[in-house]
TrEMBL record:
Start and stop residues of the NHL repeats: 50-81
Signal peptide: none
InterPro entries: 6-blade_b-propeller_TolB-like, NHL_repeat
Keywords, comma-separated and alphabetical: Repeat
Domain of life: Eukaryota
Pfam families per UniProt: NHL
The protein's name: SMP-30/Gluconolactonase/LRE-like region domain-containing protein
Length: 126
């Protein structure tokens, strides 16, 4: 099934599907959005000030949202309501210790996914 959000205020970029059939996505305009696809209602479409360039998104088993920030080379945890919770890690710069995923860069598009058990995978598409 193809679902068009044409005419909506949401222009999805990277996305993930929620357990209830919703869609969580990063959008043009540096926002994070949640759309209930069957009714085409937008629960939220807002900027998260701590994230400058939201890229990849993934839903965690508890419904929270993982968001990669391409501009700041970071991974953030956002609540299911689109409220920033915390930064989980950062990619090291020269001389910086960075976070635990030291081999990840964000020169290209960054995708993130989460397994049912909560394991996080990140793909750096250069």
């Amino acid at each position: 099934m193809i679902i068009s959000l044409a005419g909506s205020s949401v222009e999805p970029w990277y996305m993930d599907i929620t357990e209830d059939g919703g869609l969580v996505c990063s959008t043009w305009g540096d926002k994070i959005a949640r759309v209930q696809v069957d009714t085409r209602t937008v629960a939220f479409n807002k900027s998260v000030p701590q994230i400058e360039y939201p890229c990849g998104v993934a839903i965690t088993p508890d419904g929270s949202i993982l968001v990669t920030d391409r501009y700041n080379n970071t991974l953030h945890l956002v609540s299911s309501q689109g409220v920033w919770v915390k930064q989980l890690w950062s990619v090291p710069s020269d001389g910086d210790q960075g976070g635990p995923l030291r081999s990840v860069s964000t020169d290209g598009s960054v995708c993130v996914c989460v397994t049912c058990s909560g394991c996080v995978y990140i793909l750096d598409c250069l």
